[in-house]
What does this fold into?
Amino acid sequence: MKAITTNSYGGPEVLTYSEQPDPKVGPDSVLIRVRAAGVNPVDWKVVAGYLDGMMHAHFPLIPGWDVAGVVEAVGADATEYAVGDEVIGYVRKDEVQHGTYAELVAAPVRTLARKPDTLGWQQSAGLPLAGLTAYQSLKRARTKAGDLVLVHAAAGGVGSLAVQIAVAEGARVIGTASERNHDFLRSLGAEPVTYGDGLADRVRALAPEGVDVALDFVGGGAVDVSQEVLKDRSRVVSIADGEVRAKGGHMVWVRPDTADLTALAILADAGKLTVPVDAALPLEEAAEAFRLSMAGRARGKIVLEV
It folds into this structure.
């Protein structure tokens, strides 16, 4: 099979488009013919070696954890799926080597769910990691109908999905973004505010009594600002601030979860969740996809078409 690989840690320049052996399929896994793979910031962080302290990496390494594709073979005990099923997955394993930037990927069934009927391959590939991060962050903050939710980096891949999920659950949403993305946030159902100095005052102008939940998808002091406007300082969740627990909030490191993925697919098929795709590139241009992701200005998701 063709795949994107690296033989060492480094930047986008270490990625190559190469021929690799087809994956072996374990008893609780299926073999997926990849149609598209989502690109996430964690992918280039893995390749750069930033996660070496927590995950073993083996080379040659194929990056990528997001996938959308068609089941081509099933393991001996993978009774949940059949050949021809269309699936999505957040295929994070305990060690890093056999990722989703490839024509084929072997995925444990615990990482998969059925593809939403209403989303195309690009959108489906962009849903798993970002959608699960948003969904699990809202759950960790105990979000409920009627809550006022502040979403930092609301126009990004995770933030844009968090806005939609919160709105679908009956929450009111304030989202931070640059002014060029304010109309985009309004289209998702959020009330936009510009990030930067004075953010707390701008949030108070929209929510004089404070907000119920804050989700930090960007870091850089977002937790501190959130706690200035939260009614309950503990209802802040971050994926980017390593000190959030010490500050009384919650950290989320997204987990593969079939039930949560299925809930996202149901929201999509109900017309309550879509996946904005900022850029779609062919698999062999993965290095350029990394550069786009590293620039941090994508509105929605970056995906690779296989």
Observations:
- The first helix runs from residue 41 to 48.
- Residues 130-251 form a domain with the Rossmann fold fold (CATH 3.40.50.720).
- The mean pLDDT is 97.
